[in-house]
Amino acid sequence: MKLIGLIPMLETVDLRQTIEFYTKILGFECREFFPNAETPVWASLKKDDLYLMFTTRNEHSTIDKPTMTGSLYLYPEDVDQAWEELKERVEVEYPIENFDYGMREFGVRDCNGYLLQFGQEIK
């Protein structure tokens, strides 16, 4: 089996709010939505070479709210620049710092509570 890509599809309670967060705060472009822009239940977002999809909760879901125990780890070209652009605009989970495992990174929460970590290898 050959895999040619991975695009996370995450649940959200408020898709319009999620689209606004990712486009206005993080600079993503909303490439597609279904069924329409006024009442979307699914959206595809893109920034540079990164893709994400979001969907509203399926009526068959058995969980109370959208949840992810992991995180999305993003690699900006310049993590310090990303920190300066975002630190006052988002909920900071942990500030930028150097870690013993060789990464300089910080973590923030998106409007859904998902952890977004931004990291760059320390040279």
Number of helices: 2
Name of the CATH superfamily of the largest domain: 2,3-Dihydroxybiphenyl 1,2-Dioxygenase, domain 1
Range of helix content: 10-25%
Output the structural class. Answer: alpha/beta
Strand order of the largest sheet: 1-4-3-2
| Quaternary organisation | single chain
Examine the coordinates and then state which fold CATH places here, giving the name of the CATH topology of the largest domain.
2,3-Dihydroxybiphenyl 1,2-Dioxygenase, domain 1
Percent strand equals 35-45%
Query: What is the strand tally?
Result: 8
The biggest beta sheet is recorded as: 4 strands, mixed
Order of helices and strands: EHEEEEHEEE
How many distinct domains?
Answer: 2
Global mean pLDDT: 94
Q: Uncertain runs with pLDDT below 50, 5 residues or more?
A: none
N/C terminus separation: 35 Å
Give the secondary structure arrangement, pairings included:
Elements: E1 9-12, H1 15-25, E2 29-34, E3 42-47, E4 50-56, E5 72-74, H2 79-86, E6 91-98, E7 103-109, E8 115-121
In words, what does this structure look like?
The N and C termini lie far apart (35 Å). The mean pLDDT is 94. Helices cover 15% and strands 39% of the residues. The chain folds into two domains: 6-57, Roll (2,3-Dihydroxybiphenyl 1,2-Dioxygenase, domain 1), CATH 3.10.180; 70-123, 2,3-Dihydroxybiphenyl 1,2-Dioxygenase, domain 1 (Roll), CATH 3.10.180.10. By secondary structure, it is of the alpha/beta class. It contains two helices and eight strands, in the order βαββββαβββ. The chain has a four-stranded mixed beta sheet, covered by helices on one side.
